[in-house]
Amino acid sequence: MSSVDSLPYGATLEQYERQAQALFDALQSGDDAAHWRFKWEHPRFRGKSVTEVRSATLDLTDAQLVIAHTYAFETWTDLAAFTDVIARDASVALFETAVEAVISGDVTTLSSIVREHPSIVRARSTRRHHATLLHYVAANGVEGARQRTPANAVEVAKILLEAGAEVDALADMYEAKCTTMSMLVSSSHPHQAGLQAALAATLLSYGAAFEGPGSHWQSSVLTALAFGYLDTAATLVKRGAPVNNVAATAGLGWLEETVRRLPLADAASRHIALALAAQHGHTDIVRLLLDAGEDPDRYNPEGYHSHSTPLHQAVSSNHLGVVQLLVERGARLDIEDLIYQGTPLDWAVYLERTAIAEYIRGAAQPDT
Question: Domains along the chain?
Answer without folding.
Answer: 13-85 (no CATH), 89-242 (1.25.40.20), 247-364 (1.25.40.20)
